[in-house]
Amino acid sequence: MQADWQIPRISLLWLLVSMVVVIGLHVEHLPIWLLSAALLAVVWQIQNYRGAWGQPGKHLKVLLTGLCFGGVLSSYSTMLGLDPMVALLVSGFVLKLLEINHRRDALVIVYLAYFVAIVQCLFEQTMMTALPVFIAIMIVTAALVGLHQSNQDRRAGNRKYWFRPLQTSVVLVIQALPLMLVLFIVMPRIGALWSVPRHQDSGITGVSDSMSPGDFSNLSASREVAFRVEFEGDIPPQPSLYWRGLVFSEFDGRRWTQSGPWGYRDKNLLQWHGDQPAEWDSQVSRHGQPLAYTVMLEPTNSPWLFALPTARPDSSGVALTRDFRLYNKLPVNSEKQYRVRSWLDYDLESAGLTPLRRRLELALPDGFNPETRRVAKRWRAENPDPVALINRLLKQYNSEFIYTLKPPLLGKHTVDEFLWGTKRGFCEFFASSFVFFMRAAGIPARVVVGYQGGERHPNGDYLLVHQYDAHAWAEVWLKGRGWLRVDPTAAVAPERVEMSFTDLFGKNKDFLSDSLLSLERYQHISWLNKLRLNLDALDYAWTKWVLGYDHVQTDLLMRLLGRIDPMRIGMLLVIAGAIALAPMAIMLFRAREKHYRDELDQQYVRFCLRMERAGLARLSGEGPRDYAKRIVSMRPELQGDVTAITDLYEAQRYKNEQFNAGLLRQKMRRFYPGLRRKVRL
């Protein structure tokens, strides 16, 4: 008989399965050596159970622990950040499997498996992630159920034995769903108590805090969603969809970066939602009716947000900066939903620039791009009117330059080589060269980066902006007019801003060439494109109503309760909880009156029922042996079958013989006493 501290075979099976499934959730962000170590640990435990291998010794365990710690440090170069922390957690999870000797060790592994599965949600929280995590939790629960099966269940010899823990796990999870739904709807959302930074090489893509040649052309190879936008009204035309993200004013000869607060007289450079408008807000004149819309931003690990020009935030924790872009209080490490109002007709800082700010927007590094400096000064002398100079440069872009996804590499003098040499580039090439030329001609200019356009979802009535929609353009300051947007890319390829990026490049062989299995690459195939859009609509609904539920929770509770106060919330929670728990209570009540029998008892009950139909019912309190003797005395011709069935049942039920209900089931298939003569009592 198996001791209570030993691990049942069925539990060990589900324990190993759960470990494989849980670690499989993290395949994308774990080093290959750790995945190999996990597989080796599983094989080692199987061989140990078979008696082929022994348990690792103390010195080997210490060595393996050191190797895992060193491997994590070598793979990530630091122990700070989400990725190395998860790798270290999985390492401990794997090592714990090598010292499983007792039922309590198995319980520790089960609890660790729950934690490792949930940690996956720190990386991604899409609907396609939630489903595997949900399945993994059910399998881990099956391992927990297997640890608490009775000795009688462990002796069971039927085919259902191996799947009984999973069946029980599914029932437990289904029973918990109503209560989980109630708590999800009613309970208030509590923000994270900590912030776990992602490693710098963790694969988060998007507009960064600097720009150099090739950055945006690299983003054009990413099919990831940047954000989705839902407008309160019609979606504006494609050419007006410039999603402002960052403003770059400093240039070191190759890379553009932000300049910070230098040159502004204002002390407070952030205007938070709900605050009184700052004095510098009067520097922008907004005309006409604003556009109201909601943005659902994917994780960027950065604090900047994206909005149409001259935005004002309508969500808490979001600020308008002095250079008129949006800023979040914390880095966006999970889906971020925020509301915005924007005025597309505006005048920005037309009153003038401070002397220090003007020098900053004209500054150029020494020793770079001498040819462009020379030509810019000559052209400015020939075109004193800044507008005429701008139009002349844009005309040259239009007539001589090519917009391409694969621009050539540039050397030290990036602007000279591009303007007077290669003449092939992506948006950042045109924006950078244009701003440099304007500054060299004495016109204040800066680079603005973000996204342009987006894909209109035909069914979801929202705008879908991908990473390949990333874009860079320029702003020039003209006296009496302020900052004006100039997009030199539109001069080269007007269709870039008049149509979506996929409509322009969808059939280009270089479009998403590194993602051959991406559905975005095959938008010209109607049924694949429809499938892609339907999947995105489901993902957006999940993000909006599940991940972003806290933004609609207050409105929903107001409609249900009339007003929100502790008494009404408490009553709603009690009533909803009672409704959710009612099915479980009914099941438990019915279970009290239901007699559960294993398959061995079920087969013996079949025997008794057949004898009852044959006229020999079992008496109340009559044991199997006495019942068999009475049957044989009245039906001698049944002696062989009745004695065999009774002996088999007694041996397995009372003599601790190997539990195998299949033998009794085979006997019952051939036993039909009702076909013979009935005995009258």
The number of helical elements comes to 24
Count of beta strands: 20
Termini gap: 44 Å
**Helix-residue proportion:** 40-55%
Beta fraction: 5-15%
Q: Any low-confidence stretches, pLDDT <50, length ≥5?
A: 151-157, 199-204, 676-681
Rg estimate, integer Å: 36 Å
Structural class: alpha+beta
Strand order of the largest sheet: 9-12-8-2-18-17
Sketch the major β-sheet: 6 strands, antiparallel
> Please, what is the average pLDDT?
81
Q: How many domains would you count in the coordinates?
A: 3
- Shape descriptor: elongated
Question: How are the SSEs ordered, and which strands pair?
Answer:
Layout: H1 9-24, H2 32-50, H3 58-76, H4 82-97, H5 103-119, H6 127-146, H7 151-154, H8 164-186, E1 210-211, H9 215-219, E2 225-231, E3 242-248, E4 250-251, E5 256-257, E6 270-272, E7 284-287, E8 291-297, E9 311-313, E10 318-321, E11 326-328, E12 336-342, E13 345-348, H10 355-360, H11 370-382, H12 386-400, E14 402-403, H13 414-422, E15 424-425, H14 427-440, E16 445-452, E17 455-456, E18 463-466, E19 470-478, E20 482-486, H15 488-492, H16 495-498, H17 501-505, H18 526-547, H19 550-561, H20 566-593, H21 599-613, H22 624-634, H23 639-654, H24 661-669
Parallel strand pairs: 14-15
Antiparallel strand pairs: 1-5, 2-8, 2-18, 3-16, 4-5, 6-10, 7-13, 8-12, 9-12, 10-11, 16-19, 17-18, 19-20
Question: In words, what does this structure look like?
Answer:
The chain is α+β, with helices and mostly antiparallel strands. It has three domains: about 10-155, no CATH class; about 210-520, no CATH class; about 600-675, no CATH class. About 45% of the residues lie in helices and about 15% in strands. It contains 24 helices and 20 strands. It has a six-stranded antiparallel β-sheet, with helices on one face. Helix 1 (about 10-25) runs antiparallel to helix 2, helix 1 (about 10-25) packs antiparallel against helix 6 (about 125-145) and helix 13 (about 415-420) crosses helix 14 (about 425-440). The longest helix is centred in the last third of the chain and has 28 residues, at about 565-595. Residues about 150-155, about 200-205 and about 675-680 have low confidence and may be disordered.
